[in-house]
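Here is one chain, start to finish.
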Amino acid sequence: MTVPTPPPRGRAVRRVVFVAPSAFTLGNLFFGIWAIVSASRGNFLWAGWFVVFAGVLDTLDGRVARLSKTNSRFGAELDSLVDIVSFGVAPAMIMYFLEFQSAGRFAWVVCYIYVVATSLRLARFNVMVGSTPTGWFTGLPSPAAGLALATWYPFSQTSVSRTALAWLELEHQELVLLMILLSVLMVSGVKYPKWPRVGFRTAGGIFALVLHVVIVGGAILVPSSFLFPFLLGYAVFGILRFVVFSLFDRPDRFRLRGGGSGEPREGTHQ
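Its structure:
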């Protein structure tokens, strides 16, 4: 009787490392589905936070894939399919159950338009990998749009939204405009910056470090008051930048210069 030889330990370790990014991606999907279920039960606060958790896992899966050098076409495609649920369907369903369920027979169409825009954004990202300016996204990333919608309700429950920043408190009509605006920005050609690289040797690297600390600190310490205004400001930044370049008829110095890395990557905030 021949005893089967166990696989080499090194090969088993590599297999675990390869599976790790996909595990984060499926965790992203888990929270996206949970957000939809919570919204259907009227628990909009936790539904919004579950989308935020999905966004954290979406960031981690890409970082793990790059650190472990396990980037793959399969992982990139899986990430896009999951993102359609977590940052497309889930935020749309939160808005539907929260605002549009009793707003009329065809109010759901607004949510449909948003999901379509998310799908187109992710499909375009996949086919444009390697042909976009390094350090910039073309169109508003779908996680930024989805998180903006998901964090609106937690923000609306804070004292900040009713006092100092009362002008940000949105009603039904304004929420329709917000969803349409985010949908248009996702499929537009407006450029949005990626997270800058942290460093200690240059002013840009130090600025990036400070920016990371501010964003992470705000998201951890006062998430309800910080995330929605920050994400809305990120969306508006792209519009203002586009308007400035258009008014001055100035060539965009971040325009394509021979392509980017040419390598599909997971969890890059598509």
